[in-house]
Every structure is written in structure tokens, then in C-alpha cells.
Amino acid sequence: MQKIGHFIDGKHVEGTSGRFADVYNPATGEVQAQVALASQAEMDAAIASAAAAQPAWAATNPQRRARVMMKFVDLLNRDMDKLAEALSREHGKTLPDAKGDVIRGLEVAEFCIGAPHLLKGEFTEGAGPGIDMYSMRQPLGVVAGITPFNFPAMIPMWKFCPALACGNAFILKPSERDPSVPIMLAELMIEAGLPAGLLNVVNGDKAAVDAILDDETIQAVGFVGSTPIAQYVYSRATASGKRAQCFGGAKNHMIIMPDADLDQAADALVGAGYGAAGERCMAVSVAVPVGKSTADALIEKLAPKVEALKIGPYTAGNDVDFGPLVTKEALARVKGLVDQGVKEGANLVVDGRNFSMQGYEDGFFMGGCLFDNVTKDMDIYKTEIFGPVLSVVRAENYEEAVDLPLSHEYGNGTAIFTRDGDTARDFASRINIGMVGINVPIPVPLAYHTFGGWKKSGFGDLNQHGPDGFKFYTRTKTVTSRWPSGLKDGAEFVIPTMK
Prior knowledge:
By secondary structure, the protein is of the alpha/beta class. The chain folds into 2 domains: 2-248 and 457-479, Aldehyde Dehydrogenase, Chain A, domain 1 (3-Layer(aba) Sandwich), CATH 3.40.605.10; 252-438, Aldehyde Dehydrogenase, Chain A, domain 2 (3-Layer(aba) Sandwich). The chain contains 16 helices and 23 strands. It has helices at 40-59, 62-78, 80-91, 95-112, 115-118, 154-165, 180-191, 206-214, 227-239, 262-274, 292-307, 328-343, 379-382, 398-407, 421-430, 466-472; strands at 2-4, 6-8, 11-13, 20-25, 30-36, 123-128, 131-139, 142-146, 169-173, 199-201, 218-224, 243-247, 252-256, 284-289, 347-350, 369-372, 389-392, 410-411, 413-417, 435-438, 454-455, 458-459, 474-482. α2 packs across α7, α3 crosses α4 (95-112) and α4 (95-112) runs parallel beside α6.
């Protein structure tokens, strides 16, 4: 049985706690490895290594730090197939989707090559008689990231790439469900020229999370996961004086107006709702057709597409639409929510609960489910299902449709499909959600913009990657300078003002 340890001070370290978690192959249901769960001593060693390495890295000029990112991008491209295969083997997503996971992280690394420009401060000459003022962006020191299972390459890179480019050291606590790729990324960073100790990967469970949140050396924490845990991490981190950005759950609505291209909308819903088995925080899980005729026509187009979805292991080739869920527990939870939806009176148009694949009967597979006539009071509407389930909530008019995402507690992403510019502009302006798509079903911003949800989907005032990433991982120092000239006039006791 393969044992996966930690990556501390530039080298692999075996776990010493005696505690392990099973790592499954979701397609077969078999345990393929065991990952060590860190002890307090192992976390302390990682933090000490980071603290020792960080000052010299902060003193390295930003252009040299950017060159490490440049080399890292080259290595990611070189090892793309290797990374994708390891990711698919532990997560279950298809190989093309796994490559997309890596590429979306790679794009953030590319953005971080611009660190010398992004870290420039401001300067004012002659702010007063002989006085100049300037600001500097400086690293925080040692920072940490706690990342989820559903994007084991992308989200760690969203965290550690800007943090390292800013001159920090980074402690990564990835999901114990698919731990191999984060360690492979750390290896590539060392190969790219990152000094040892600056990126440490410590696997673990809640004990490791709490050790990060309570440690006085760690200055900031980034988190992605469920909303209850995001609230927990945010409150505990900020209570101990840390900066925190924590992103939680989602319930992403897509409104389909009567003037929309329904073929385009149906294709968009199938891809956005069922890709990666629905295990995406930006998955569209609620379709809101406006008007009965729109809803009836949409269901007529969706049902055969959902029934025809190709489901299988990543080894089945690139024409598979999605693979298994990540664990047996995740599969049971999603099926239970579908059962609840049926009990609550929603119409289950397509039922994928009994899907079984020959030769993979023990895998965590589930077919696509499509609900119609879902209402706001149902659990399947209020809860983030995180599985291959799409709910259709019918709206009589535009205002009723817009009220659904407006009044939902989550505010990660939303979309509208329409041919009318006025409707699209009104929707984008009024909606209280962090990321909006207009005829785009999954509006994940590119690396040079920022990613973040509103309401209970995000906690903290700065988003991930883009300019906000550099703001989050630095703090501003403002210097007021005056060089002596002429005779000393003596002490001044009045606060300096502009004369």
C-alpha cells in the first residue's frame, strides 16, 4: 500500500503521527493509498522551516522571484499529462477536465510573473517642504492555505503562487482525499528554483487546520470549502489576529429568458450542471426558465441530453462527460438529497440514482438527475447538493426569476441567457452575487481578474488571484522622508501639516 507523507523543507517526509486516511480510486471504490495525518510536531516543523526561509526570499528582488514562476509554468506544461493522470486517479474527474484544473492554476502562475509591476508602490514628491512620501508593498511573512478536494491543482496554485511571488513563505494543507498533486506541485516549484522551506505541504485533518489557525507565526489564511467550515476558519483565524479570505458553498442560478436561444441554453446547462459530476462551486445547479412555454421547451430539450450523458472512469477516454463522485459518503449524500426532493414533491424527470457501470460496480458513480417544478421551500433548492443534479425552478416573469438568486443565502455565481441587452445590463447591475455570466454559464474570471462570492459564499474583503491576490498577501508601509538641509530649527510640537 502506497504511503503519502508530507513535503517539508524541500523534501519528502514520512508521517510520524501514526494516523492515516484512506485515499480511494473513486472509479473502483478501492483504497489505493494512505495519506499521513500530521501531528502538531510536524506542523511546527513546517512552520519553522517556512519562517527560517522567508526573510531571504522577501529580500530577493521581485524579478528574480518572477523568474521562478516563469520556470514553474514551463514545468507545468512539461508534466501536464502526468499531473492530470494523478489528479484523475484520486479525484475521478475526466482527463480533459483534470487538465483544465491544472491549466486554470497555471494561468495564475503566469499572472504572477508580473509581480514586479504589481508590487510597485506610490510616490509623492514635495508633499511638504523638502518632504517626500512613498508607499511600499511588503510580504506578510508565513501564510497558509487550506484547499478542497474538487480542484486539487487549481486552488492550491491560486493560493501559493501570488503568496510566493509577493515574498511570503507558504504552508499548504490540501484535502486528504486527493493529496498527490499538491505534493507534485511543490516538487516542481523546487525544480523551478524555489528555495527549500518556502512551500511546505502538510497533509492532515481538523487537527492540522486548527494548528494553522492558532499558530502565531502564520499571518494569513486562505480557505475554500463548505460554508460552515469557511465561517469556522474565518472566525477562528481573525480572532487570533490573522488576515483571512474564506470561500464557501454556492447555489448558482441560471435564468433563461423567453428570447434566449434554447439550444444554446440547454447545452450550457448540461455542461455547467453535470461537468465534474457537479462537484464544482461554480456549477449551475438551478435553472430558472421564465414563462411556461420557455420551461416546457427547456425540459423537452434537457431530458434527452441528460439521459444521454456518458459516464465512466477517466481511463475510458476523452469522450466521457463525467466520472464518479469522490467518495462513497459523497455518493450517499447526493442520493439522499435526491430522495428528499422526490418526497417533497419535485418531479424527477431523469433519475440517475440506480446507474451502474459493468466492471465498476463498486465505484462511486451516479447518473445525471433532472428535477422539474422545484420550489424555494424544498431542501434540494436551499442546499448545495454538490452532485450531478439540476433543479428547474419555474418563474412566471423576469422579476420573479431575479428574486430567486437575490434572496438566496449563497452568492457565488449566476448567469442569464438572453438576447436583450437591457435585460442583461439590469441583471448584472442589480444582482447581489460576486460573479455574473451573460450567455456564459460558468463565469469564472480569468487570472488577471479576481474570483470571489458574496453573502455566505465568501468571508473576508479580498478575493482570490488577480490584483486582490497581491493585496491580500502584502501589507502597505508608507514612508515620510525629509533629508536635513540648512540649520536645525529645533523641536516642533505641532502635528505636521501641509504649508
